[in-house]
């Protein structure tokens, strides 16, 4: 098998950690000796131990003389665990193949340099484009100081999310809804606006997928006007609940939600709403790398208008609701086609009776 084949194996392992290991990157590692895989590892829930350590422990003495395929440059700094570059050297690995250099200033080439200084053969850039897609959240947090944002929309064929009376459950079928739960699972956080929380009172948890590490549920509500007897309030112990609000939120509302166990994060207000850029910066500071935004229309529009949406997951159902239906997005203030954000189609597939199209910048 080629370097690309073994790296593809390591990348498939790394994806298992998406949504489970933040703020650390979801890394995969495969150890190969004499053409045989002797160790596999993925970054463990919570971010430790790292993938290289897991693979080395599995391989034991078989790591001596092996080639390590790692989806991101091994760390070279002492954090809560010893550096993985040193562990690979100590284990007697003879060659290391990586997909990407780590842009974190604590690593950024130092891991590769440390391996070469120890006499190991180092090859970089194998399946780099695939790794960049997988690591987009981690890379965004390090380089842009904000998490990657995926916007999910579930609409009729004419772009409506509810009838004129507000009925919206269910536009898409059960298969599409299950796919949404899988998408929640590989993101660190699920985000909705206060209007959606009031209208739908969603739990926003991952369900029917066995015991899983729940994503952080984030509600953006400038004044913390949220249902205090609904699903959110009743399900605080089912997964972390963060509420992002402005400085005008009433003290009694802050006290209520803090008393229920929610975490409150104050963010600056701009143009009458929580500033989307400042909000994402705050989430990055908290370690969040991947955000799955499920609406509503005003929040989605503010993120799009600010150029903060990296990917779009559009579920299209085979029905029409007409002009009187509720649109999937709020106003964007676009007068010219040239000013409209344009995305590229990455994937298109059938999900039950519906269609999922994935788009990226």
From TrEMBL:
SUPFAM superfamilies: Cytidine deaminase-like, Dihydrofolate reductase-like
Cofactor mode of binding and number, as noted: Binds 1 zinc ion.
Known catalytic reactions: 2,5-diamino-6-hydroxy-4-(5-phosphoribosylamino)-pyrimidine + H2O + H(+) = 5-amino-6-(5-phospho-D-ribosylamino)uracil + NH4(+); 5-amino-6-(5-phospho-D-ribitylamino)uracil + NADP(+) = 5-amino-6-(5-phospho-D-ribosylamino)uracil + NADPH + H(+)
Domain CMP/dCMP-type deaminase intervals: 1-123
Keyword Zinc: yes
Catalytic residues (positions): 52 (proton donor)
Keyword field contains Glycoprotein: no
InterPro entries: APOBEC/CMP_deaminase_Zn-bd, CMP_dCMP_dom, Cytidine_deaminase-like, DHFR-like_dom_sf, Eubact_RibD, RibD_C, RibDG_C, Riboflavin_Biosynth_HTPR
Pathway where this protein functions: Cofactor biosynthesis; riboflavin biosynthesis; 5-amino-6-(D-ribitylamino)uracil from GTP: step 2/4; Cofactor biosynthesis; riboflavin biosynthesis; 5-amino-6-(D-ribitylamino)uracil from GTP: step 3/4
Signal peptide extent: none
Cofactor(s) named in the record: Zn(2+)
CDD domains: Riboflavin_deaminase-reductase
Protein name: Riboflavin biosynthesis protein RibD
This protein's encoding gene: ribD
């Amino acid at each position: 098998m080629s370097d690309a084949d073994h790296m593809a194996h390591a990348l498939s392992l790394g994806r298992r950690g998406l949504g489970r290991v933040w703020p650390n990157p979801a890394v995969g590692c495969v150890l190969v000796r004499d053409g045989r895989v002797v160790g596999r590892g993925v970054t463990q829930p919570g971010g430790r131990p790292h993938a290289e350590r897991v693979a080395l422990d599995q391989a034991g003495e078989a790591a001596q003389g092996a080639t390590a395929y790692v989806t991101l440059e091994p760390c070279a700094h002492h954090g809560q665990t010893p550096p993985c570059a040193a562990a690979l050297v100590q284990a007697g690995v003879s060659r290391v193949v990586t997909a990407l250099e780590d842009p974190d200033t604590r690593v950024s080439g130092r891991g590769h340099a440390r391996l070469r200084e120890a006499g190991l053969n180092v090859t970089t850039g194998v399946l780099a484009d695939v790794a960049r897609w997988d690591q987009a959240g981690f890379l965004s947090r390090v380089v842009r100081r904000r998490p990657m944002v995926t916007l999910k929309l579930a609409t009729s064929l004419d772009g409506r999310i509810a009838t004129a009376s507000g009925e919206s459950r269910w536009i898409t079928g059960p298969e599409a809804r299950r796919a949404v739960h899988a998408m929640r699972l590989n993101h660190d956080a699920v985000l909705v606006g206060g209007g959606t929380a009031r209208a739908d009172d969603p739990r926003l948890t991952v369900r029917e997928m066995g015991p899983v590490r729940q994503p952080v549920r984030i509600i953006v509500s400038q004044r913390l006007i949220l249902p205090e007897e609904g699903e959110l309030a009743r399900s605080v112990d089912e997964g972390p609940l963060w509420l992002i609000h402005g400085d005008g939120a009433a003290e009694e509302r802050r006290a209520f939600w803090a008393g229920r166990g929610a975490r409150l994060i104050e963010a600056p207000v701009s143009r009458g709403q929580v500033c989307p850029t400042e909000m994402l910066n705050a989430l990055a500071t908290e370690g969040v790398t991947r955000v799955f935004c499920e609406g509503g229309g005003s929040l989605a529009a503010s993120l799009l208008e600010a150029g903060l949406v990296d990917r779009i997951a559009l579920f299209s159902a085979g029905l029409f609701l007409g002009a009187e239906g509720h649109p999937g997005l709020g106003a964007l203030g676009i007068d010219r086609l040239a000013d409209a954000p344009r995305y590229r189609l990455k994937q298109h597939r059938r999900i039950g009776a519906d269609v999922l199209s994935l788009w990226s910048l």
